[in-house]
Design goal:
homodimer, alpha+beta, 4-stranded antiparallel sheet, 6 helices, globular
């Protein structure tokens, strides 16, 4: 799709079908993450953990108890982990990686949603950090859940500014 | 452009011509920022400060002394300010807004670069915060400098994964 169509079609998808994400699509999404701008890359680039194992996905989905579906039962999750760096850098770098992946997923017809709660939960859980093989010295900051959304992907927004602004 | 072409063409532009950004292009870039996903929007959405005044741009460019050109003499700068929220949210939200704007700028043939140093400098300077009319309770976290890059915009990367990963 043209960029503008992708931007107008991207939305946070909170309901997924059981259909798995094809390997080629998952690889394209992951590759798009490599095209993000990074601040202070000399401190170490982000690391991706690609989760498609049903048992692990179920564990992560129930991370905060049975009543809250943390990853919306999505069939795939990509955790973006970063090393220590200047304040705010891991958050900003991981956000940029997730956004590149989110737009590529949208372009490929995949529902997706930017998540940070699941990262906060994993970060505080040494057993999960180990089970997910997050590299030593790294912690997850942002994540993308993805799969086939129950509602499909189509332009759903208008190209109008909605943020407040001032001009100098 | 197709999304993939935009992703492959986006790069951090550190040299600009003196040509100003047309109003329509600037508006399109700003509008793209409205299409970013936001965490905890109930705490307050990001606010944009669009700087094209030559005197203010010069002040910001020299924020850290005459030897470091903080905004690379770009003819336009968009500061993304956020209110207080949960830890990391202002950084992640502002990053998402900047990335949407960065890709739209790239699509429109504009060189651009994601900046955070200028925000850190402004944040610590009460006079500048006032001169920039940053809303009370808000602070700038991320910014996009933009203009016509000396090298133009064209695909400059390969679609190959460069981040480390593991699969679960």
């Amino acid at each position: 799709m043209e960029l503008k169509q992708v931007l107008l079609s991207r939305k946070s998808c909170r309901s997924y079908t059981e259909k798995k994400v094809e390997k080629e699509k998952l690889e394209a999404v992951i590759t798009a993450g490599s095209l993000a701008p990074l601040g202070l890359p000399m401190d170490g680039k982000p690391h991706l953990t690609v989760v498609t194992d049903p048992a692990m996905l179920k564990t992560l989905n129930g991370l905060f108890g049975p009543e809250r579906e943390v990853i919306y039962n999505a069939p795939a999750l990509i955790l973006v982990s970063c090393p220590s760096s200047a304040p705010g850098i891991p958050e900003m770098n991981s956000a940029c990686v997730v956004e590149m992946m989110s737009l590529m997923a949208t372009d490929l017809g995949l529902g997706n949603i930017y998540l940070y709660g699941v990262c906060a939960g994993v970060k505080q859980n040494p057993e999960l950090l180990k089970a997910l093989a997050i590299p030593e010295g790294y912690a997850p900051f942002s994540a993308l859940a993805l799969g086939y959304g129950s509602e499909g992907v189509a332009p759903c927004k208008e190209f109008v500014p909605t943020l407040t602004r001032n001009d100098i």
